[in-house]
Amino acid sequence: MDGPSGSGKSSASRGVARALGLRYLDTGAMYRAVTWWMLRHDADLTDPAAIAARAADPVLAIGTDPDAPTVHVDGTDVAAPIREAKVTAAVSAVSAVPEIRARLVAEQRAVIGSGDIVVEGRDIGTVVAPAAQVKIYLTASAEARALRRTAELSGTTVEAQRAAMATRDALDSTRKADPLAKAGDAVELDTTALTLDEVIAEVLRLVKERT
Ligand code: DC
Asked: Ligand 1: does its nearest atom lie under 6 Å from the Cβ of 28?
């Protein structure tokens, strides 16, 4: 399941994994965890070569239970700090570095193994798992996405979220390495007017139809 931030990917993919008894992988959390580590270690995030030089250093551990997904870096639980604004502001720069992507895509494929998993990200249908049985590309209007993000976070406004998301989407969609993109064989689902339960029901219908 791919799509921009605020499209409802995380809630929908967790819900689908729960309903089908599958594992769940949040690949954005992996990019965020590496970004958290780079900030912790004072890497120069304006210099892609400096990020690439340390791409192999953070030790990641990611749990795939949809009821309790976990993420650790160098043994530290980073589930909360990777959602902080400073990580969100820096993650596009780190995830644009090809050495970071090569490392994380290999780890994602290792976690996926032979399947039975719902994976969310930006390049899952195009790069990480091009042979996936079901590919969904979630979208929503800029207004709906900003409203959802504002409801999740404290101390922000819809306008600030809309601007921050536009910047991050532009960076994620225009980077050279594996940009955010809809796979040719993905089903696009616009969630603007749908409730979470409706999105999950529609994805479950597609899964049933295709498997
Ligand atoms: O889904 P998210 O907002 O937690 O993702 C954080 C960032 O990670 C996003 O701005 C781009 C990057 N990302 C990526 O490049 N490829 C993925 N498969 C998942 C996330």
From this structure: yes
